[in-house]
Amino acid sequence: MNELAYELDEPIAALATPWGESALAVIRTSGAGSIERVAQLFSRPEAVRAASGSTLVLGEILDRAHGSPIDQVMLAVYREPRSYTGQDGIELFCHGNPRGIDAILAALKANGFRAAEPGEFTLRAFLNKKMDLTRAEAVQEIVRAKTREAHSLALHRLSGAIEARINRAKAGLLRLMTAIEIQLDYPEDEVAGDLDASLPELAAIRSELAALAATYRTGRLYQEGVRVALCGKTNAGKSSLFNYLLREERSIVSELHGTTRDYIESLVTIEGLPVLLFDTAGLRSAENPVEVEGIRRSERIIESADLLLYIVDGTLGLTAEDEGFLSSHPAGALIGLWNKTDAGAAEPPAGFLPVSAATGAGLSELVREIRRRAVGEGVAPAGEAVIDSARQKELLERCIEALAQVKKGIAAGMPADAVALDLREALDALGEITGEVTTADILNQMFAGFCVGK
User: Fold this and answer.
1) Model-level pTM?
2) Do residues 258 and 288 lie in contact, with contact meaning Cβ atoms separated by under 8 Å?
3) What confidence tens digit (pLDDT) does each residue in 198-221 have?
4) d(CA 313, CA 232)
5) In what order do the strands lie in the sheet with 352-354?
6) Which member of 79, 170, 261, 335 has the lowest number of beta carbons within 10 Å of its beta carbon?
């Protein structure tokens, strides 16, 4: 492996909780000599030195230059290898005052700690075999999860759900590799067997990996969310619906046409799915330059949205402009809403959902339809292994393609050494997913996106 961007034995320190005033803050340390270096700054150094792993010690962090206390803290002492990183380390629980935190970090720096790089604690955990790369990626996914469901999926990955499925596939492929190596070593021995017998297991492994790769779309939706734009003519009820879904008065609602001069956006959870919801300017011919610019910007949002909610005032019915918009956008990416059912709207045309943005009638059906369109039918992510890493998806696809070549090679009676090359490509791809096969460049790039202190 090429050189990493930094040394992994030297003592490091970082704030693991957000900056700002709070009841408590946590400062993490790790690395060779880290326990002794913290003890030298502590009011009870011998208690720290004598502490066994997973022990709490109460005392004060001192300013070494003057001997005065900086803050009262609780130290959690961890001894290698039974720690998050696999190294000796201490976590300092202090008061969440930014000035006190700064003073503690400065004292640690003066006593030989350097500031941790983003994700360096988790990188050390990976390199010390405390977790594989799929679990390491899940750490950051947990931090960034926008909904409870996304958090649950990431937590499932952290527990090893992806690693377990990869290891099962790898075990099957290693059995096949063993059979091939026997043929290469003893080509005249009939005990080596016929590789055709391995084709059913090979197909099952390939199908299993393809099913795992197919979960990427769901995983990314739950992690990144879906862009949904409310659109339609002026006064159709877009802003009322926007406010209802947000459960707050964000958009101005008025009988005057053209009230929304620009799009408004907000993040909302719909059926466990993070949704970036846009209220767009009403589509109409306008002369006011401000409204014209707002409509132009809204059209850009509409074109980039994953799903459109097209709202029609049911008391007025469909117009030529409505029909033109509906015909120019794919039906699968659009939900037609027949609004104002509370105000004497006519029966909706086929394909429209009857709703009332004023009373909420029909909006529970709308919420279910948004999730169905975004995620698909019958998706129950709870308890399933779902990937949301583009890196993992690409490697799974590489493995699946290599296994297709293995199947072709066996079916065509190709020499065992040629089949072994494709099989090795498949195994290397799986090894890259879990981190058994990796490079320093990949690790530097991956962990650079992590939070400092993680």
Assistant:
1) 0.80
2) yes
3) 888 999 999 999 999 999 988 888
4) 9
5) 264-270, 273-279, 226-232, 307-313, 334-339, 352-354
6) 79
